[in-house]
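S.,

Sequence below, as promised.
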Amino acid sequence: MQELTTLARPYAVAAYKRAREIQATERWSEQLGFLARLLEDPRIAQAAHHPKVEKSAFASMLLEQCGSDLDPEIQNFVRLLVQNRRLDLIRQIGLLFRQYKADDEGYIEVEVRSAHVMDEVEQIKLASSLGNVFRKKTNLNITVDPSLIGGIHVRAGDRVIDYSVRGQIQRMAQRLCN
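The prediction came back faster than expected:
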């Protein structure tokens, strides 16, 4: 995973700089997410890596699939990634891009997994608490994960806060085994 981040970083930096220049960071972020979801299709991913598929033909086919959903500059970015055989980095590029955007705009993206559905009051309290911890405005992305048994698991960048019952059980088992 770290290797992918290292490979994706120069592309993400260049993409973010260009998006800021043309004041289109939100649009680029959406379109990079769209491309990442598109490349989750196993047939498209297989074609992207197939050695007999000509790069320019694949880029044309991919851009044709996207239709008018992609801006011309993003289309050029896709052609560059295809030419350099780096299209598989699009998910990582998108993640880094969103991180640069969040840093630039003064907030932090926080992935929260909760054992149960959180109501609006709980979300507001959690956002406020995490805002104090990270000293930034937080943008919460909450998913329900019953396997946590109880509590929450928080990931913000490279920081992880595990207040789940499953995490406590795993830590206790680890201490008992050592």
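The helical segments are 2-21, 25-38, 42-49, 55-66, 72-83, 90-105, 120-134, 165-177.

Coffee later?
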